Amino acid sequence: MTWTFLSGKPIYAQIIEQITHSVISGGLPAGAKLPSVRDMAREAGVNPNTMQRALSELEREGLVYSQRTSGRFITESEDLISALKEKTAREKTGSFLREMLLLGYTAGQAADLILNYGKAEKNE
Amino acid sequence: MSEYILDCGGITKRFDGVTALNNVSFRLRRGKIVGLLGPNGSGKTTLIKIINKLLVPDEGAVYIDGIEPGAETKSLISYLPDREFVNGRMSVTELIGLFSDFYADFRADTARAMVGNLGIDLKAKLKTLSKGNREKVQLIMIMSRRAKLYLLDEPIGGVDPAARDYIINSIITNYSPDATVLISTHLIADVEKILDEVIFIREGSVLLHENADSLREREGKSVDAVFREVFRC
Q1: What is the rounded average pLDDT of the residues A61-83?
Q2: What whole-number distance in Å separates Cα of residue B205 and Cα of residue B195?
Q3: Which end of chain A has the lower number of beta carbons within 10 A, N or C?
Q4: Which fold has domain A11-76?
């Protein structure tokens, strides 16, 4: 995984976002074993306590589970992963639409823009 | 075993009537990486020297794991001074031997392996190394001890950004989870990702002591940006 951190936002929250993103985009497949907290912290260049906090949060959400002796894994529930994927897609669509409305487009016009996006590119 | 690995209560230190530290109080728990952040001359080095018993405060007291600084606490603290402390005529191997003799908790194998990973010749005299490599070797010595409290005074001061990353990485990798690391620096952007807590110190007084993520959340800014605002000249 590659990690990028923006300033001004708690790092644990950014770790949660990036792991979630990696799971729903298939970078981390269902059931995959995660490296140790320390290794993940080193890879991301963050404090191990911060990594631990993010992973505990992900465990509470159910995206990650831990097995006492063998470590931490990504959930095996495809349902949970697709639900998360849909939630993220809705959020992205929402923020796109809000921006288009600000530009004076209707939802229908925005939809047309999306559908014709590839074609318009080719004509340019 | 005390709940706090470091407990500073009301520390005041004056030099010839000039107050270097003014009633400094804070406590650190085990297993934290803490940034002691302040501009030059704010009292960071004085404070670290007091914790290390190189200076004695005029008022107040320091407890390391519940014990006042002395012979007993020497074995709990691993201290990286703000200037080079090695003898340049020594080789890396000799330095490792010296640390092994002095400190029962020194892991010579770890130190040798880390120096080896850097591609530094163990037989090389320290004075023949580049400044960056010399600083890395010194940090390796300090972090190769199994201490309870690491005091790092400006560990990334004079080195290039790649060497900074290396040093920061060695800090995360090598401290044991029940040990606390206190890092003094004014290069905040480089270290802030690894800090659990930050202490801002100005003109000898503690301005703020907070969890780094809570500070970012509350201010909506990086610790570096908050620092620049607080200490704007």
Answers
A1: 91
A2: 20
A3: C
A4: Arc Repressor Mutant, subunit A (1.10.10)
